[in-house]
Amino acid sequence: MLRIQNLKSYYGRLQALRGISLHVGKGEIVTLIGANGAGKSTILNTVAGLVSQSEGKILLDGKDIRGLPAEKIVKRGVALVPEGRQLFAPMTVADNLALGAYLRHRNGSKAELEQDAEMVFGLFPVLKERRKQLAGTLSGGEQQMLAIGRALMSRPCLLLLDEPSMGLAPKMADEIFRTIVRLKQQGVTILLVEQNARMALEVAEQGYVIETGQVVVQGPSADLLRNHDVERAYLGKGYEKVWE
Amino acid sequence: MTGIDSGYCAANREEVEQIQLERLQAVLHRVYRNVEYYRESFRGRAVFPDDVVSLDMIRRLPTTGRATLVANHPYGMFAVPLREVIRLQSTSPVASEAIVVGFTRNDIDHWTELAARSLLSAGVSRDDLVHICIDYGLFPGALGLHYGAEKIGASVIPGSNMAPDAEFEMMRNYHTTVLVTTPQRAVRLANYIRSHHIHAKALMLRACLLVGQYWSESVRSKIEESMDCPVYDCYGHSEVVASGIAAECKKRNGLHINEDHFFAEIVDLTTGDTLAPGQKGELVITTLTKEAFPLIRYRTGDITRLDYQTCECGCCFARMDRVSKRTDDMVFIGGVNIFPSQVERIICDVIGARAPAPIFQLIVEGNEASESVEVAIEVSEAIFSDKLRVLREIEEKIRGELFDMLGVAAKVRLVEPGNLRMEPAGRGRVVDRREVNGG
């Protein structure tokens, strides 16, 4: 479904991605893991059309979407749940969700939107209880649920999740991961960036280890869980010599 | 990726190439970071992992030869610290030409999966009883196939060096359904069955996989006739993985290369240039998933041809022709790779001679009973003595060293100068008269 070849991204003169190739199959969860600053979020942001300078190919169902404006990419079925949620804090839960369906708002039917909102409430019942509450007053876990719910309102075929467990209590993080699995069961394809490598690899089929803007290991999650580079990327275990 | 019960079948060429590109880029980054030799050799060509933006660009990287592995022995080519390595396999017993290959836990698991695929494509299932008639110590590929058969869930009998009558009795009594062995031993068993006028249906074999040595099509028909089962070829390489790189499917129309783990190219023997698909040349392999001992553009020395047409079986992995020739004069004896250069070194060590090296010939003969190896050496000044006893002692000493170092029980014979018919350029040092090779 998503196929990226030799993706390079720049922030001004700084090169953040140095030729990334990866793919996500339909209905799969694929995770990107790596240390801070490795370029994981940049990959998601570039796919979502938020990074203006890039090279390479981002093929969504065979069509190159690289360089398209963000709203056109959303229209093609790609939704980003950004790092740190980025909700509209002074607005209500219901309004935040409605904004997620902004592109369909003008020509879509109201009944359809309500139906989608019900689907999100079905996934996160707590949001229904708080639908009139302001987003900024929700707990961290609830905010994350709202951020995911907002992305789902655009009816994405590909969901980009950036650090969904960040800053959450372990119990809440578990809940978010259970939701990720449920979404996959509903047929949503997910590209997941996570600091919590172990949890991410447990739900994902495939994984990529990113180091300084390059992929150093690619493979099934089970292989990555046993790979020393994964350990190194996470625990900062370095080595100087191979016979050490 | 499909599960192990159904085997692996790549149906879409585009998908295969995407995975190959991703894995190629990842392995290049790994070796560039972790293996000094590759870092230096890439720099020497002013080509960096970032430059490889397509599979074709791999041609810009230098090839790696056997000599490089020898020069960086023991751990120079390892890409992980030794504590990550759970198995070490020495592929050459001679100290001065030693190569040691390491495997991490993931490497062993991948190898197991690849060997399982080879068996599955020959139709082996969990209901089979797989008899592996190979010397595990001499041929490391046996271990891979053993793990692979167990992974499928088949019952496995690990083999040993048995006489053909004992082997036959065991297979008949235990109802062996799949025989995995070397061509030499398969021929020996076929001859036994023939000479004792045993009916081909006496064994319950459904398939026979031959590994570890080259063999001719006439061997295939001979074994199929006497054992009444299809014979499949399975390709491995001791420095890559000794079994499971490629295997024949039921169509037996070339060996499917496991392209999600290996990137294969064919290069011209002399220029080293990559040849177009369909042309014959030396097989060059890049390992895409190996962690401990990755190889970039490794020249296997095996001559073959690649076919990228989708096979009748539906799998779109490239197929290679059965290997029947090598670029060098390496010879398989009892599943062990022997290079004449190793023999030369042993002779030189014994007689204490420096250049020019003595002229010698390795004569391999094989009949139904066993293989026999004779090393004929022309008497040079360094060897010459008028005492017969001294000459006998030299013969005896070389014989002992050959056995100790290479594991080969060879007959050693000193001959008069000019008695060996040699060809120019060091060729003709091996005379292979074995039945297995169709000769």
Short overview:
By secondary structure, chain A is an alpha/beta fold.
Topology (SSEs and partners):
The complex is a heterodimer of chains A (244) and B (439).
Chain A: E1 2-11, E2 14-24, E3 29-33, H1 40-47, E4 53-60, E5 63-64, H2 70-75, E6 78-81, H3 93-100, H4 102-105, H5 110-123, H6 125-129, H7 140-152, E7 158-162, H8 170-185, E8 189-193, H9 197-203, E9 206-211, E10 214-220, H10 221-225, H11 228-235
Parallel strand pairs in A: 3-8, 3-9, 6-7, 7-8
Antiparallel strand pairs in A: 1-2, 1-4, 4-5, 9-10
Helix pairs in contact in A: 3-7
Chain B: H1 13-34, H2 36-44, H3 66-71, E1 85-90, E2 100-104, H4 105-121, E3 129-133, H5 141-152, E4 155-158, H6 164-174, E5 178-181, H7 183-195, E6 207-210, H8 217-227, E7 231-235, E8 246-248, E9 255-257, E10 262-267, E11 281-287, E12 298-304, E13 306-307, E14 319-320, E15 325-326, E16 331-333, E17 336-338, H9 340-351, E18 360-366, E19 371-378, H10 388-406, E20 410-415, E21 430-432
Parallel strand pairs in B: 3-4, 3-5, 5-6, 6-7, 18-21, 19-20
Antiparallel strand pairs in B: 1-2, 7-8, 8-9, 9-14, 10-11, 11-12, 12-15, 13-14, 16-17, 18-19
Describe this entry's structure for a reader.
The complex is a heterodimer of chains A (244) and B (439). With 244 residues, chain A is an alpha/beta fold. Helices cover 39% and strands 26% of the residues of chain A. In chain A, helix 3 packs parallel to helix 7. Chain B has ten helices and 21 strands. Chain B has helices spanning 13-34, 36-44, 66-71, 105-121, 141-152, 164-174, 183-195, 217-227, 340-351, 388-406, and strands at residues 85-90, 100-104, 129-133, 155-158, 178-181, 207-210, 231-235, 246-248, 255-257, 262-267, 281-287, 298-304, 306-307, 319-320, 325-326, 331-333, 336-338, 360-366, 371-378, 410-415, 430-432. In chain B, the strands form five sheets. A nine-stranded mixed sheet of chain B has the order 4-3-5-6-7-8-9-14-13, with helices on both faces. The radius of gyration of chain B is 22 Å and the shape is globular. The A-B interface holds A 3, 5-6, 18-19, 21-23, 208, 211, 214-220, 223, 226-229, 239, 241-244 and B 1, 15, 18-19, 21-23, 25-26, 29-30, 33-34, 49-50, 53, 75, 78-84, 104-106, 109-110, 289, 291.
